[in-house]
Amino acid sequence: MSTVTYAREGRIARLTLNRPEVMNAINDDMPRDLEAAVQRADADPEVHVMILQGAGQAFCAGYDLAHYAADPDNKITQPMPWDPMQDYQFMWANTQAFMSLFRAHKPVICKVHGFAVAGGSDIALCCDLVVMAEDAQIGYMPARVWGCPTTAMWVYRLGPEKAKRMMFTGDKITGTEAAEMGLVLKSVPADQLDAEVDALAARMASVPVNQLAMHKMVINQTMEATLTQTQRLATVFDGITRHSPEGLNFKARSEAVGWKQAVQERDEGKFDWTRNRQIPGNSD
């Protein structure tokens, strides 16, 4: 599992996203490697709790846009006319791999430093508990153009109004703001993050594993009645956002000027993706 490493320390399994050179950006392999690591921990009778973390400077900076946005040859933007079921099959498989964290019998704590953005926020919010560094950032910026969060966890964690606030703006918020909003369990100073998560995991690991599994199943079932339907709709919409006129314009812009500039224009609201031009009076 080159993109995810696995280690067990007593009753705690530590799963680490392992592409630090690109802030653990998601490639074709990472979803499957993550699911395999979760299944390994879930099948180990010695493991009571999992910690999910990222190597290097960030938890996860989302999908690897150097490939998926700037490269003309990739799996998530097809030539027109596009086949929505081909797109759905690819993204649904990734979504279900991320959901292995939610569906695992054992609890998962996500430790966020640096960034958990775009697809990285999808991964983090599938975990049972999220602890962030105060200066870390979380958000789903492709909500502005070229994306819809396929795991659809925002509304389940925040409720409708605050979820709309995040989706309608595509803003990133700090760990402090995320904790205050109720998106994550808590935030702590960055230099205390490791100790905070380790202490929480150790406390939980002293509980019998069957007790942990039963509590997780009872709580998760309150969401499961609607969650699959919501995720199916979100995954279909995610494909549409990438093949709409605006989505195709974003892809073309990324290929022409590089994904970093295209993302900056998207996040700063400087570009009219429908008319495929700078917004008059709103550019440098």
UniProtKB/TrEMBL annotation:
Domain of life: Bacteria
Any single Pfam family the record assigns to this protein: ECH_1
Family the entry assigns: Belongs to the enoyl-CoA hydratase/isomerase family.
UniProt name for this protein: Crotonase/enoyl-CoA hydratase family protein
Species: Sulfitobacter sediminis
